[in-house]
Write a structure and sequence with these properties.
Elements lengths: L2 H14 L2 H8 L3 H15 L4 E3 L4 E3 L1 H29 L3 E7 L1 H18 L3 E7 L6 H4 L3 E5 L9 E14 L1 H7 L13 E2 L10 E5 L2 E5 L10 H9 L4 E5 H10 L3 E2 L9 E7 L7 H14 L4 H4 L21 E2 L7 H7 L14
Parallel strand pairs: 3-4, 3-5, 7-10
Antiparallel strand pairs: 1-2, 5-12, 6-10, 6-11, 6-12, 6-13, 8-9
């Protein structure tokens, strides 16, 4: 028989002084209750109860055993209650992983608003420009591109769709001209991370259909924040995630280009290790992310211009993939004027 159940039965028999009383309290038959106590005594090799026709009494060993068993069962109940509470109430440490530039530019306000809502949760944020195995490395939540999941046990939830933005400084365009078609990029130095598939080829979709070009990079860099700095210095035409340059577009420091064309989109997802018995801290953080990044939600309307250029990025360092259009209030006028997706968005390039 189950040893813990036998211990519970023994405690109930000792408290009530009766096998029949314990059987009624535990909704068991008297024979089953008797068997549990007998199994305990056989396991321990000692008598725990003195039995007479009129009453039961504890032996010396039974008294000692009862005292210790009470502590064990109380501790076990406390642990179970703690685990249940952690699964139903948002408490404990929440381990989050995201790419570096996304974390530096976009993640902090989301975490701050979540922590304010759930003060018993302590966010533990890791920024990593590499593929991450959530299960092996013990993360609760990751922000990444679905197709780069490395574990079959990973569960994903769609957050938004991503795009990239072609842009340059007004001074650069005044000196070198404004490209209006993807082919025009061949005459300009390009600032972007290379795509893993197809080398540096870029595939645009426009009025005439698909257009493929292979612009030449002006300089190599493994970080899109560095490429942004180069773009602001007028070193060429940049292809960058708009969440990174949302404020630059809104202020006019950078100008969105090729408004009639769009680079391939990609689905940006939240990832977590399992759907079974999902802890409340994970469930509420996922819901908070979705609420925060979906257009029309109160949280998105309440953002400041600085905090509005948010997005989600992938964890794959080999890709420079599209970022999500999040309908940022800060950049909507620029986007509408240029007929391009220049809203706060998501890059799927990991080292960004």
């Amino acid at each position: 028989m189950n040893q813990l159940q036998s211990m519970r039965v023994f405690v109930k028999v000792a408290d009530l002084g009766s096998f029949v009383g314990a059987a009624g309290a535990l909704d068991l038959s008297t024979a089953v209750v008797t068997r549990h106590v007998a199994d305990l005594e056989a396991r321990l090799g000692t008598r725990l109860l003195n039995r007479t026709t009129r009453r039961l009494s504890l032996t010396e060993s039974g008294s000692t055993y009862l005292e210790r068993v009470r502590h064990i069962l109380d501790d076990l109940e406390g642990v179970e209650q703690m685990v249940v509470a952690r699964n139903h109430e948002p408490v404990g440490t929440l381990r989050i992983v995201a790419p570096v530039v996304f974390g530096l530019h976009s993640l902090a306000p989301v975490v701050q608003s979540y922590a304010a809502r759930y003060p018993d949760v302590m966010p533990d944020v890791t920024l990593a420009d590499r593929q991450v195995d959530l299960v092996e490395e013990g993360y609760d939540v990751g922000i990444m591109v679905t197709r780069h999941m490395r574990s079959a046990s990973i569960v994903t939830r769609r957050l938004t769709t991503g795009y990239m933005t072609v842009c340059a400084t007004p001074a650069y365009l005044a000196q070198h001209g404004t490209p209006t078609r993807p082919e025009h990029l061949l005459g300009h130095p390009c600032l972007s991370r290379p795509s893993e598939q197809g080398g540096d080829e870029r595939v645009f979709t426009g009025p005439e259909g698909e257009v493929r070009v292979r612009p030449s990079n002006a300089i190599a860099a493994n970080n899109t924040e560095m490429l942004r700095q180069f773009a602001l210095l007028g070193m060429g035409v940049a292809i960058l995630p708009s969440y990174l340059i949302g404020r630059d577009l809104a202020s006019g420091r950078l100008v969105p280009l090729l408004g009639d064309y769009r680079l391939p989109q990609i689905e940006i997802t939240i990832a977590y290790p399992s759907r079974l018995h999902l802890p409340a801290k994970v469930r509420t953080f996922i819901d908070h992310l979705v609420e925060y990044f979906q257009p029309g939600q109160p949280s998105s309307r309440d953002r400041s211009a600085t905090a509005s250029a948010f997005a989600v990025t992938a964890l794959d360092p080999a890709h420079d993939l599209p970022e999500a259009d999040l309908h940022s209030e800060a950049v909507r006028p620029v986007r509408n004027a240029a007929r391009t997706r220049s809203a706060a968005s998501v890059s799927a390039s990991s080292p960004i």
